């Protein structure tokens, strides 16, 4: 008999009446896209993280692509990122015909290790894309130091980290550019959506350009003389990466609930830490003092020496208990596409080692105390069956 009858997902959106009403109001309004809901949402996110500018984009991946464009990343450049991330953190580099370079992780926090970054810097390095994995802040100070020393741009992939603070400051207010994602499993959702925050006006203008085909109506940016009030110019090759007013209306009412979302996530994580640290064979992610983490993912590491079986069997047993576990992530360069590009196994040994023994447990604000207890029950059941 499984510990529960219904399947508990690993992540899920939280939608209330205000969210639904906000989207309906927009549907009844004048704009479905390029309307006022977009700026309202951008201002709300910028204010929340303490950034001067924010540009909302169709999804987090497109936002990363836009940031790479704004950073001037192009063919021949190298960009350093973490192997323990969603493919988008490296794909955005390939979109610009540049080369992703993977720097290994800290084996305890699972975040990119600044010392490893420095060892990967060459004369071709143009930028660093650190990833705040699970929502825990990377150690930004040494990364920003490196960026100053070697004249690099920092683009934070904070898809997991809306609401996280590094040394008291919100992620999104610190480096050149920061990307957040609004996919339904992330801190707040717009269905699909992403945003870049920045304090730099020049980068802000480049992001706006890229979001709309490379087209501008800004006279200062236009190359030829203005023909008349109808005139606009395409001055570079951009994309249609616009987000809709419907999505941004949802984002705005979601942002009203962010404190509650984070509070509940922190509560659940504290309870996970308390319950799971008692279980021999389970290792908990190290939390650095400099990070006040908004908690996107909860990951356990199995001490496989203490189990009769591998991670796969433990994973399958938890699924059989109706606990929606997951694995984040296969090191990016081990995907067949990256292998075809010539990245070899063994490139980042700590990342590969971590991948073998991790399992992501369910974590989202609407998870009930009963749901939580079911996860703990299932883990105890599976661990006692499989531990040596
Ligand atoms: C979710 C996510 C993204 C962006 O994803 P979209 O689905 O395109 O919004 C980027 N990086 C990481 C690490 C992510 O988890």
From TrEMBL:
<keyword id="KW-0663">Pyridoxal phosphate</keyword>
<dbReference type="InterPro" id="IPR020026">
    <property type="entry name" value="PseC"/>
</dbReference>
<dbReference type="InterPro" id="IPR015421">
    <property type="entry name" value="PyrdxlP-dep_Trfase_major"/>
</dbReference>
<comment type="similarity">
    <text>Belongs to the DegT/DnrJ/EryC1 family.</text>
</comment>
<keyword id="KW-0032">Aminotransferase</keyword>
<protein>
    <submittedName>
        <fullName>UDP-4-amino-4, 6-dideoxy-N-acetyl-beta-L-altrosamine transaminase</fullName>
        <ecNumber>2.6.1.92</ecNumber>
    </submittedName>
</protein>
<keyword id="KW-0808">Transferase</keyword>
<dbReference type="Pfam" id="PF01041">
    <property type="entry name" value="DegT_DnrJ_EryC1"/>
</dbReference>
<dbReference type="InterPro" id="IPR000653">
    <property type="entry name" value="DegT/StrS_aminotransferase"/>
</dbReference>
<dbReference type="InterPro" id="IPR015422">
    <property type="entry name" value="PyrdxlP-dep_Trfase_small"/>
</dbReference>
<dbReference type="GO" id="GO:0008483">
    <property type="term" value="F:transaminase activity"/>
</dbReference>
<dbReference type="InterPro" id="IPR015424">
    <property type="entry name" value="PyrdxlP-dep_Trfase"/>
</dbReference>
